[in-house]
Structures are given as structure tokens and as C-alpha cells.
Specification:
Number of strands: 5
Distance between the termini: 58 Å
Order of helices and strands: HHHHHHHHHHHHHHHHHEHEHEHEHEHH
Strand order of the largest sheet: 2-1-3-4-5
Strand content: under 5%
Number of helices: 23
Radius of gyration: 28 Å
Largest sheet: 5 strands, parallel
Shape: elongated
Structural class: mainly alpha
Length: 620
């Protein structure tokens, strides 16, 4: 997230024109106030999206801040010294971001190993991508959903934003240098950056598919870099060191009016829009980026009215610690949320965790971030002759980083031992015990202290012809078992897909000639859609197709209505049957993951057995 990049007035960073004395790049308290509002919106959203459905827009505010401040620093350095020290810039970024991040990863992983061991697998899977700042693409590759609302959130899911920003920090200084080397005119620089931002906006609108989980366009650097670029364009247009204070602190100026309007737009969007609103992706995020730019411009104006309001001490206090608050809040909320609940289901736990994140961020700021930053600044400011006196600070920094490294290694070793022990205690694949399917006999009771053995599900021949399956994330989890149970089946499943898109999916498969003779629909987990969508899918398939409708099992208000719609549709069509996944898995929560919705490997076999048994209703 956007961190505190502002330099105190004593730092000799300025935007200087030739043959004129340089002015120091000023500290802008209004930006810290804007950070405070942004991080508060994100935390409230993660506690309960219903309280602030568009609170995730705080991330876009941080992106705009980062693009502006990074570019402003680079311009000031170039105008002051005639060059941009890329190595020094990247080292400062690493010193600013990595220590606090390492502490969060270490503490959260170690705590999860003790209090929430079932959360370790997802946390460990993401650690490498978090450490290499590729987490946004890792989440995209693994079909992760930022907006899924089943069970506790993944510990490090929010760190995708750090990956986007670090990728920007790595590439943008190089691009800026090339741009300045090729063209001298600042207006051309601004226009080129805005063109790149427009391309990113168009990519988001182009790749977004209504009714499909939008996480790909949300996570993608290509589709979500435009807030950073717009912030960079503003810095190129109005560097902070060139801003001159107005004569009257209380004069109402157009920039203040624009800033208040931008803040009102952001507040309205945060309160009324959500990630499921189609308007967000073709243009909503672009509007938020432009509104953020208006607020930024007003926030950096010396003696501006809005800048003075945002620069009040309580907001500044939160703002300078916003990086730590952002790092800590989601792991704490995830650890505090009981299994099979969302933070909104346990609001007291989530609120307590959010408050605790502020305290831990304050400690991190005092004992981790500030000392390392001071040591780095002190060493950078000293001449070569003073290297001996700065060696103590370097040793302290090295000792701290070594301690963090050892702690991380110890934690990973502990987790690996735990994972190995868990794996070694599991039965072999062929011996995994599964509950009976929807129509199987009851499981016999086993003697005390022994694991009851479920009878093997009957083997049923699949109907002749190709089988196509379309589904959501539950089918994604069950896909390996379906393919093993029904060889030759084609599975088209995506995270957070909604039942309302079923007709269009069937039309597409039919148009491409890939629609099977039997169609399995495993949609309904995400709530949108019902009888109309199911009838539309059947009609879209044309005559002669057989349908299997898989009921949903999700502790949400729409479960019963979706399942009832499936029963009603099946009762009116001789070529439609129901595979009652809800009945098959009810009472066997041990075969579901922590969210209580998606099957684990054993549960996936129950899913496949239930579907296979439903297929026996059709003649071979």
C-alpha cells in the first residue's frame, strides 16, 4: 500500500528550474489524512462488506497516492542532482517495505500454526508469491477470488496490492527515464502517461465479463495500473516543490471545490456500489481514479482548505501508520474469525482484530519501520570518512534482518513438520473414507476409537455420449474427482460464476459444437439466478439434451430458493434430473474446507458420486 513517502522540509529534494535556486520538497500533512481515510475504508470493508460495500476503493486511493508520490520524489531527485539513482531508489523502497512485511508474515504464520492450523496450507501456498511480489498474478493463476464471502479470508490475500505497487516501483522509474531521455517537454510526458492509463482502463472494461467473478481484472497489473499512472501524471503536471502558498489560508479556491467534489464522489461510491455492480469495471474504477486525483491536487495545495482539514493530527497519526495497519488487519481478522464463518458472521471478533491491528501497526512503526529508516537515512547522509561511525547502525539493521530471516526459517520448518505430520496421518488415496451419497445406505457404527468405514458407493455406468459440466468454484474443487469418475467429461467451471449466466454458457458451447449430449449444471453457490436461468439453459441447448442440476450447499439465504427452483424445473422436464449435493454433504462438514462450502478431496469424491448416481436415471 501507499506508504509515507513525504520528506520533511529539511530534506534537499526539490523541483528546480535551470539557474534558479531550489526549493525544498515540502511535507504535505493532507496526504497523511487521505491515507487515513483510505485505510479505514478498506478495514471496514474487510470487517463487514455490508457496512461499506465499496470500501475496497480505498485501495485505488492508495494506488493514486503511490503513483503521485513516487513520481514526485523521482522528479525532485532529478532536478536537484541532475540524475535519478535507481539503485538508491530501489534500496529505499526495500528498506521501507520489507522489514514490516517480514514481521507480519512471520508472526501471522507462526500464530496460525498454533491457533488455526487448518489455515496454514493457503497461507503457505501464497508465501513465495508474496515474497517475490507476484501475488496478484499467483492469485489470478489459482482462480482466487478477492470478493468471495465464504468462510474466513486467506491470511495474506490483501497483499496482492503490494505486488502491483512493487511491479510499478520496479518498472516506472526506468520508463520515466526513457521518456525524459526521448522527449524534453513535460506536456508530452503527461500525455504519454495518460495514454498508458487509458489503455489500462480499456483493458479492464474489455476483459470484464458480467456474471463472472471480476477478480482477474481486479488483480491484474495490466488492468489496474491506471490509478498509479494517473497519480504519476498529476505529479508530472504539478510537482509539490513548485506549489506556492496562497496569501489567504481561508480563501475558497477552485482546487478546494474540486477536491471536496472528488471526496464526495469517492464517499458516495463507497457507500452505494459494490464489486458486483457491472458499472464498476467499464468505468466506475476510472471515475474513482479521477476523483482521487482531484482530492490529491487539493491535498497538496499549501494552506488549502481541504488540505488543512485532512491534515488534522488524529488523521495524520493514522495516516503515517497506514502501511502497518493495512499489513496487519486482514491476518488478524482471519485468525480471529471462527471456522466456517465470515468476519461479518462474527463482527465482535473482526472489530477487535481491526482495533488490534492499529496497536500492532503503532508498535511496528515505532520499533521496526522508524529505526530502520533512520539508520538508512543516517548512513546515506554521511560521507565516506564517516563510514566507521555508521557501521553500528548497519550492524543493527543487519542483526534485525538476520533475526527476521532466522525466525521465518524456524516458522517454515515448524509448518513443514506440521504439514508432514498431517499428511502422514491421512489414509492413502484409496482408503479415504467418504460419507454415503444421497441415496446410499447409512454408515455403520464402528467400535469406539476406530474410524467408521463407509460402504463403497455403487459403480454406475454413465450414459452414452459426451458429458459437459458447467459450474462455479464448488465444481472447480470437485473437477478432478468428476474427471476420474466420468472419463471424457468436459468441465467448464470458474470461481464465483453465477447461475444467471447458465443460458449464455450453454449457447456458447452449442455454437462452438462442444456441448455434450448430457449437461451438468453445478451453479447456485453465488446466489444470482433461479428458475428463469435454468429454463433458459434448457431451451438454449435445444432438443435431445439431458440435464443434471446439482443442488447448492451454502449457508446463505438463497440456498433453499435455488434448490427449490431446481426441483421445480426437474419436475416439469423428463430430460432433467437433480443431483442432491446438498443432501449428500449435509452432516459431513469434515469433508468441506474451512469455509464450509467447498469440498476437500474426499468431499469431491462424494460430489462426483452424487452426480454419477443421478446420471443413472437416463438410459445408457
Amino acid at each position: 500500500m501507499a506508504d509515507s513517502l513525504q520528506a520533511p522540509a529539511r530534506h534537499p529534494l526539490s523541483h528546480r528550474r535551470p539557474h534558479t535556486p531550489s526549493r525544498a520538497r515540502p511535507y504535505v500533512p493532507g496526504l497523511d489524512g487521505l491515507r487515513a481515510l483510505a485505510v479505514t475504508a478498506v478495514v471496514v470493508y474487510h470487517v463487514n462488506p455490508g457496512w461499506l460495500p465499496g470500501g475496497f476503493l480505498g485501495v485505488d486511493v492508495f494506488f493514486g497516492l503511490s503513483g503521485f508520490l513516487i513520481t514526485d520524489l523521482l522528479l525532485a531527485e532529478r532536478e536537484q542532482s541532475g540524475r535519478i539513482d535507481l539503485r538508491g531508489f530501489w534500496l529505499r523502497r526495500a528498506r521501507r517495505l520489507l522489514p514490516a512485511l517480514a514481521v507480519v508474515l512471520l508472526v501471522a504464520t507462526a500464530t496460525a500454526a498454533v491457533v488455526r492450523p487448518r489455515r496454514l496450507s493457503s497461507a503457505l501456498d501464497s508465501l513465495l508469491s508474496v515474497a517475490t511480489f507476484t501475488n496478484n498474478w499467483w492469485q489470478t493463476a489459482t482462480d482466487a477470488s478477492y470478493f468471495a464471502s465464504f468462510g474466513p479470508p486467506p491470511l495474506f490475500q490483501h497483499l496482492w496490492t503490494l505486488s502491483v505497487e512493487e511491479q510499478f516501483y520496479l518498472l516506472w522509474p526506468l520508463m520515466l527515464l526513457i521518456l525524459m531521455w526521448c522527449v524534453r517537454w513535460r506536456g508530452v510526458h503527461v500525455a504519454a502517461v495518460l495514454v498508458c492509463a487509458a489503455v489500462s482502463m480499456v483493458a479492464m472494461a474489455w476483459l470484464y465479463e458480467p456474471g463472472v467473478d471480476p477478480s482477474r481484472v481486479y488483480f491484474g497489473t495490466d488492468t489496474h495500473v491506471f490509478p498509479l499512472l494517473i497519480g504519476a501524471a498529476l505529479a508530472l503536471l504539478r510537482p509539490t516543490a513548485t506549489l506556492v502558498p496562497e496569501h489567504s489560508r481561508w480563501a475558497v479556491r477552485p482546487v478546494d471545490v474540486a477536491g471536496v467534489a472528488g471526496l464526495a464522489v469517492l464517499a458516495t461510491m463507497a457507500c452505494t456500489l459494490s464489486e458486483s455492480d457491472d458499472v464498476m469495471y467499464p468505468g466506475g474504477f476510472a471515475v474513482a481514479a479521477l476523483a482521487t486525483t482531484a482530492v490529491l491536487l487539493a491535498s497538496v495545495q499549501p494552506l488549502g482548505r481541504l488540505a488543512s482539514v485532512l491534515g488534522v493530527r488524529p488523521l495524520r497519526w493514522i495516516g503515517v501508520r497506514s502501511y502497518g495497519i493495512y499489513l496487519w488487519h486482514l491476518p488478524l481478522i482471519a485468525l480471529a474469525t471462527p471456522d466456517r464463518m465470515t468476519p461479518a458472521d462474527a463482527p465482535v471478533h473482526a472489530i477487535a482484530a481491526a482495533v488490534a491491528s492499529v496497536g500492532l501497526a503503532a508498535l511496528s512503526y515505532r520499533w521496526v519501520e522508524q529505526p530502520i529508516r533512520r539508520w538508512g537515512q543516517r548512513n546515506a547522509a554521511r560521507p565516506a570518512s564517516a563510514c566507521a561511525t555508521s557501521a553500528a547502525g548497519s550492524r543493527r539493521t543487519g542483526a534485525f534482518l538476520a533475526g527476521v530471516t532466522v525466525g521465518c526459517a524456524a516458522t517454515l520448518a515448524l509448518v513443514a513438520v506440521h504439514a508432514f505430520a498431517t499428511t502422514s496421518n491421512e489414509p492413502a488415496t484409496g482408503e479415504l473414507q467418504t460419507p454415503p451419497s444421497a441415496h446410499a445406505t447409512a454408515r455403520p457404527m464402528a467400535p469406539s476409537g476406530q474410524t467408521p468405514t463407509a460402504p463403497a458407493p455403487p459403480q454406475h455406468p454413465a450414459p452414452s455420449g459426451k458429458i459437459s459440466a458447467i459450474g462455479d468454484s464448488v465444481m472447480v474443487a470437485a473437477a478432478p474427482a468428476l474427471k476420474q469418475k466420468l472419463p471424457g467429461i468436459t468441465v467448464d467451471a470458474e470461481v464465483s460464476r453465477q447461475l444467471s449466466v447458465a443460458p449464455e454458457l450453454v449457447k456458447t458451447l452449442r455454437r462452438h459444437g462442444t456441448l455434450g449430449d448430457t449437461v451438468i449444471i453445478g451453479l447456485g453457490t453465488n446466489g444470482t439466478g433461479g428458475k428463469t436461468a435454468l429454463e433458459g439453459a434448457i431451451n438454449a441447448a435445444g432438443p435431445g439434451k439431458r440435464f443434471v442440476l446439482v443442488t447448492s450447499h451454502v449457508s446463505r439465504p438463497w440456498q433453499n430458493s435455488v434448490n427449490q427452483a431446481m426441483d421445480e424445473v426437474a419436475s416439469h422436464h423428463r430430460n432433467v434430473v437433480v443431483a442432491d449435493w446438498n443432501k449428500a454433504i449435509t452432516g459431513h462438514d469434515n469433508l468441506l474446507t474451512d469455509d464450509g462450502v467447498h469440498p476437500d478431496p474426499a468431499g469431491a469424491r462424494v460430489y462426483a458420486d452424487t452426480v454419477a448416481q443421478a446420471l443413472t436415471a437416463f438410459p445408457g
